[in-house]
Specification:
By secondary structure, the protein is mostly beta strands. It contains one helix and twelve strands, in the order E-E-E-E-E-E-E-E-E-E-E-E-H. A hairpin with a 4-residue loop joins strand 4 and strand 5.
């Protein structure tokens, strides 16, 4: 499953649509402006919230949490001691850990579990400015969760760059 993410660099509240390979709108990333911490909702085309993405207020390292309803799904944070390239760890609530690495700010990175590719994020497939692709490789992966992970990792990397 391949999706196109069209970011609006200076949009109020950081809202942007995610389209499928045929150009149909599938998800809306709804950024919540005027909040103390970064907060997003990933919604379907009917406006139903699929996942909430929030930055933890109190933590030693910048951390974001992905929730569905009142259930926590995952925690995303920068991996310690990753000197060569951007590296993030996604701790799933079931104890599984996903590895996210690559050139995050360039939108060229991969999501892996135990060395197996789960999703690839890349600008190379697309020619539209400020657009990148999310290719969910495994059929059993929840696309909304993969997109939420990409949003978290990019948000944390950009925040780190700006600090």
């Amino acid at each position: 499953m391949r999706f196109q993410v069209r970011e609006r660099i200076f949009g109020v509240g950081d809202d942007y649509w995610i389209e499928d390979a045929d150009g149909r709108k599938v998800y809306l990333v709804d950024g919540k402006a005027m909040r103390l911490r970064d907060t997003f909702e990933l919604k379907d085309v009917d406006g139903r919230v699929l996942v909430d993405i929030r930055q933890k207020l109190v933590s030693l390292r910048d951390t974001m949490v992905i929730e569905r309803g009142d259930e926590k799904l995952a925690t995303v944070k920068r991996k310690r001691l990753s000197l060569l390239r951007n590296h993030f760890r996604v701790a799933m609530v079931d104890g599984t850990e996903l590895d996210v690495s690559g050139r995050i700010l360039d939108r060229e990175f991969a999501v892996e579990y135990d060395g197996e590719l789960l999703a690839q994020i890349s600008r190379r497939w697309l020619t539209v400015r400020d657009t990148y692709g999310v290719d969910v490789v495994r059929d059993d992966m929840d696309p909304a969760l993969v997109i939420a992970i990409a949003v978290c990792v990019i948000t944390l990397a950009e925040k780190e760059r700006d600090d």
